[in-house]
Amino acid sequence: MSGDTAIATVCLSGTLEDKLAAAAAAGFDGVEIFENDLIASRRSPSEIRGLCAELGLTIDLYQPFRDFEAVPPDVLQANLRRARRKFDLMAELGADTVLVCSSVSPDAVDDDDLAAAQLRSLAELAGERGIRVAYEALAWGRYVNTYEHAWRIVRRADHPALGVCLDSFHILSRGSDPRAIRTIPGDKIFFLQLADAPLLDMDVLHWSRHHRLFPGQGAFDLAEFTGHVLAAGYRGPLSLEVFNDVFRQADPRPAAVDAMRSLLALRESVGALEVPAALRLDGHAFAELAVPGTVLADLGFTHVGTHRSKPVQLWQQGSARVLVNAAAEEGSISALGLACADPKRSARRAETLLAPVLPREHETDLAAVAAPDGTEIFFCGDDEWLRDFVPSGVSSAGMGITGIDHIALTQPFDHFDEATLFYRSVLGLPPEAVSEFAAPFGLVRSRAVGAQDVRLTLDSALVRRGEWAPGVPSPQHVAFACEDALAVARALRESGAPLLEIPSNYYDDLEARFDLPFAAELRENSVLYDRDSSGEFLHFCTELVGSRVFFEVVQRIGGYRGYGVVNTPVYMTAHRERRLSRA
Predict the structure, then answer these.
(1) CA angle 578–581–583, rounded 5-degree value
(2) SS3 424
(3) What element of type H or E holds 524?
(4) pLDDT of residue 578
(5) CA dihedral in degrees (199, 205, 211, 215; nearest 10)?
(6) Cβ distance 122 to 68 under 8 Å?
(7) What are the φ and ψ backbone dihedral angles of 444, each rounded to 5 degrees?
(8) Distance of CA 292 to the CA centre of its chain
(9) 87-114: per-residue pLDDT in tens?
(10) How much is the pLDDT for 256?
(11) Separation of alpha carbons 327 and 335, rounded Å
(12) Taking the CB of residue 551, how many other CB atoms lie within 10 A of it?
């Protein structure tokens, strides 16, 4: 592998000039220029060539050339005429490889000999001009739709200017076995295009054109796929070709950085890049919020320290620590502290994977980076950060909360997949499957990342239009762990904590579905319930604190691994109703 990286301009939003500038700023070595981007530009091909040179970008591929092979003689002559014009353009552009997609034309016939002969004629024309033809099997090609078939035709054509282009989406979306890629000579793999995707049951063309993702954001095993390509002897760039409606509307600069992060993580996974390994995260050191400390006191937390130089208080119950930051945005989770053995090493990994490193001015040298949504992530080792706080001298008693179970962060829709990649690659938190549920105000997508010691849930509203919106925009919450949710709920209710009331209809339905000996206690204390094949989950919520933050207390029984997502619409509605009752 050359070590070079490239990105197709179709991945990004904006004009061709916007896309090239974003790709260069993100550190890409080259680009694939998508024909439609060039057609829409006022710059000539030679001017685009000059701009790429100024930006330090090579033009590694020009694409796509469609519907060429296995056609009648008159159509072939028209196609060759088209090819000559495109090759002239490529010479001016400075591109030496063209992507030819397998035909979807109604003029095409199912004849491998004819396809090979016509592709050979195209390769002869290209070879005279120093151009290579990379033949790609579209997953929806009329007759050629697998890489094995494309390779058979290329091998039959037997021309040095003709090779294959391997596209991970076209191969993996069909469920093809990529192991046979190792049988293709490396010098006949002219180009490699990479894209991830969620597993969806839909027409493959629609899936491809709208739902591709950057590596690490979807469900494909791109490390294995890329490993097969490299083992075959491929020495070209790792290039991204991602069609995604969100990416093509988002700011191209952060999108390009996210794309580069995905390739860096992929290169690490195949042993082609040395990055400090992701260290095990040993738990939530703290969550930082802008909420009144009295709310935490109502939940049994004790004010145990005050920051030496900032308007920040430390509240604790069990191992759960919450920082109350009077300078942060009201009603928001502004920072997370994650415990690890070597904070500086974790920060070096984050910086290598393009996470913005945050400058810090405090007594303890804490390493911190910014997540895509702006949340500050601190790497904490051995509780040394506690030295920044002057102890209050008051010991924590508590009401049964033992620690932080998970933290829920609402993501802007445009950054949902970016956040998944960030937490997966930078922090080493494995993502779980995406779940979607019908909330009172539209469909919500949720994805958990992490394992037993550190859990986060990332939520995003899929579509929101118009001015009418929920009374609780972008909710966030900290979920505290306990060993007996019913006992904690009773204690907090007796102490006057502002717990959220759940409607009786929920419990009528719950009792119809499950024969629970403690159903009456759940109803009496507004505790929600869920179960899976491994265990049970009891949880309850506080009312909103400020505009969008609330707290949750959870009890995991047995091996339950979920987050009670089935109950989310219920407490979302209850929060909305409570907000309206106060208006």
Answers:
(1) 115
(2) helix
(3) helix 519-525
(4) 83
(5) 70
(6) yes
(7) -120, 135
(8) 33
(9) 999 999 999 999 999 999 999 999 999 9
(10) 97
(11) 12
(12) 28
Sign of CA dihedral 264, 267, 273, 278: positive
CB atoms within 10 A of CB 354: 18
Q: Residue 412: is it exposed, middle or buried by C-beta count within 10 angstroms (0-12/13-18/19+)?
A: middle
Cα distance between residue 268 and residue 329, in whole Å: 37
Spell out, as residue ranges, where the chain has pLDDT lower than 50.
Answer: 465
Q: Which residues contact 74 (CB under 8 A, 6 or more apart)?
A: none
Pairing state of beta strands 162-167 and 189-194? parallel
Strands (DSSP E) contained in 24-139 are: 30-34, 58-65, 97-101, 132-136
Q: Between the CA of residue 360 and those of 326, 365, 369, 377, 383, what are the distances in Å?
A: 18, 8, 10, 12, 17
Rounded to 10°, the helix 222-231/252-269 angle is 60
Cβ neighbours of residue 550 closer than 8 Å, sequence gap 6 or more = 475, 477, 500, 541, 542, 543, 544, 575
The CA distances from residue 414 to 22, 252, 409, 459, 462, in Å, are 17, 12, 14, 12, 9
> Angle at Cα 407 formed by Cα 398 and Cα 549, nearest 5°?
80
Centre a 10 Å sphere on the Cβ of residue 199 and count the other Cβ atoms it contains. 12
Within 13 Å of residue 244, how many CA atoms lie on the same side as its CB?
A: 29
Structure tokens that stand for 363 in this block:
């007594």
| Alpha-carbon gap, residue 315 to 291, rounded angstroms | 12
Distance CA 467, CA 465 (A): 7
Instruction: Provide the pLDDT for residue 463.
Output: 53
**CA dihedral (353, 172, 157, 90) positive or negative:** negative
Q: Per the omega criterion (within 30 degrees of 0), is the bond before 64 cis?
A: yes
Round to whole Å and give the CA distance between 444 and 447: 10
367, two tokens? 């390493």
- pLDDT tens digits for range 345-395: 999 999 999 999 988 765 566 789 999 989 999 999 888 889 989 999 887
Sort 434 into a burial class: Cβ within 10 Å, 0-12 / 13-18 / 19+: middle
One-letter identity of residue 188: K
Strands 549-558 and 476-482: what pairing?
Answer: parallel
| pTM across the whole model | 0.91
Q: Strands of 281-289's sheet, edge to edge?
A: 367-370, 376-380, 333-340, 281-289, 320-325, 312-317, 302-307, 389-391
- Extract the tokens encoding 268: 């690490």
| Lookup result for tokens 């330090």 | 56
- What amino acid occupies position 162? L
| Assigned token pair, 324 | 């109350």
Angstrom distance (rounded) from CA 486 to CA 521: 7
Handedness of CA 68, 73, 75, 80 (dihedral sign): positive
* Upstream peptide bond of 503 is cis (omega within 30 degrees of 0): no
CB 480 within 8 A of CB 405: yes
pLDDT of residue 462: 58
- What letter would DSSP give residue 415? G
Residue type, 383: D
